[in-house]
Input
Amino acid sequence: MGVKMWNGEDTGVCCVEIPADVAEPTVLQLMSALSAAKQQKIRRLMRREDALNVLMADILSRLCICRTLGIRNREIEFGQNAYGKPHLMGQNRLHFNRSHSGSWAAVAVSTESVGIDVERISKADLGVAERFFAPQEYRQLLQVEGGERQRFFYDLWTLKESYIKAAGQGLSLPLSSFSIDLRSEQITLETEHEWKPCYFRQYPIDPAYRLSLCSPLNRLPDDVEMIGLADLCEEFSQYL
Output
């Protein structure tokens, strides 16, 4: 029997905005909930922003998993497949994926493989697009002007990343080997090596960011749960 998310759906999406001034006692308390290996990885990061992002994405993942499965944090053990995609060890009822960028961390949990990607919008790099996007995507990008071009670039980027992450094949699936079509109301995928039928959804969490979700399920949540840092810490403490 499958599991259901806390929102009653087959997939749940949760986001937390990460303040730049997270108090050190809070950081240390959250760090203690991670494995020794993950703590070491975080401590090796040079920039505090990067360390906070990795930490919060991990903690948010743990909260979503504990909520859904009704387990304690100490019962969670993460592994990864041959391409580096994280998964839960010891069970296959629940899948998850996480992403972070700038001041946001996002997590998706689902009864099927899922991919999520959040990116902060900055200047669209046409060189990157020409090199990594499919030819038809690059042509569409060139037709968009000004600030819309930047948003279109990150729409494509996050959608493509979410697909790669859902498929769980890493960059063995080149970004240029498939294309995303945004010209109709329903976002569609064009590829010769389709992983499985998949569906996309985008969520407006912040005007300066793009957030995209990919899943083989055609019933994706209408909304993202936004959780504040204080509420995240308080609720997570119940599962320690």
